[in-house]
Amino acid sequence: MATSTLEESYKENPQSLQHILPIDFHLIQEVPNSHLWPNINNSPINHDDKSPNVPIIDLLAPNVVELIGHACKTWGIFQVVNHGVPIEFFDEVESQARRLFALPAEQKVKVVRSTSGATGYGTARITPFFSKFMWHEGFTIMDSPLDHAKELWPHDYQEFCDVMENYQKKMKALSFQLWLLILNYLQPSQEHLMNSFEFTQALQLNSYPCCPNPNHAVGLAPHTDSLFLTILHQTNNTKGLQILKKDQGWTSIAPISNDALIVNVGDLLHILSNGEFPSVYHRVLVDQTKHRVSLAYFFGPQVDSTIVPLVSFEKNVGVVVPKYRKVKVKEYLSLKAKHLETVFSLIRS
Ligand SMILES: O=C(O)CCC(=O)C(=O)O
Ligand SMILES: [Fe+2]
Predict the structure, then answer these.
(1) Residue 100 gets which letter from DSSP?
(2) Are 219 and 261 in contact (CB under 8 A)?
(3) How far apart are CA 104 and CA 81, in angstroms?
(4) What is the ipTM of this complex?
(5) Which of 44, 85, 211, 248 could form a disulfide bond with 286, CB atoms 3.0-4.6 angstroms apart?
(6) Cβ(225) to ligand 1 under 6 A?
(7) Whether this model's pTM surpasses 0.90
């Protein structure tokens, strides 16, 4: 039986072009009503603020399995250092991303995501769930961006493709390493699980242009990520990412260094861990003077896989019942495309 892809699963939930095409940020002097969030109540980003104590994990630490497991359980988000990806490489990827977003709107529209598509230029997929638009434009890549890059730079597309493909390769290897460490924490005795998934990936380049009224605009509205793990690179000094922390409200996560990567748990890992790992609710704020770019790499199981909550890892708590029913990834993504975060209530067992 032929396996389906993430791209095919998005086809089943088409979006309208009106919800896909970003405004031309180069022309904007004032935030238009369509992008004005009157009740968002953002306090301005303080770039000197220290981040909360999100765990920082050294991938070479001898007790890395325990460290990661504990971070997933208590926070659902952590930063990793010593991951082996050289710092200069992030600069290269970011500069290619900036090259794309700096193009005139008439160029970018040539590669706009199709209404039933998954890759290309456009708004965030969660856009239709909100009455206001976000201060954001994105470009999604799954494996090779060749066709789109040729449209954008007919004589000069190779470097963009090489850099993006190489970045995905590096992130895939890192995700797999993290995945094995997490499985080791969840189910040390079940080696068969190590080989029980095929994987899928997507790379999302995010651009948050300077915003004339950052207190009443939103870069990305609150959401959780859908797959197993997200690895995020945000450049130094461009804060914007916030997580919702119990008792503390929205809290900024600043990069601790230019080569630190932020890793967060996504919905499917939340389900697999039987709800033990929180799927982090996060949002992005924007800045008046800094054009922020981030690189989000999503890693998850093939859409034909089935996720069954693992219950045996919760030690010393007696009999544990699954909190969620088993669910096919394809079905989960389709439910989320229709219901966003109320999706969890639909798959509770
Ligand atoms: O830009 C960021 O910091 C976060 C991006 C994000 O949440 C996403 O792409 O899903
Ligand atoms: Fe996200």
Answers:
(1) H
(2) no
(3) 36
(4) 0.99
(5) 211
(6) yes
(7) yes
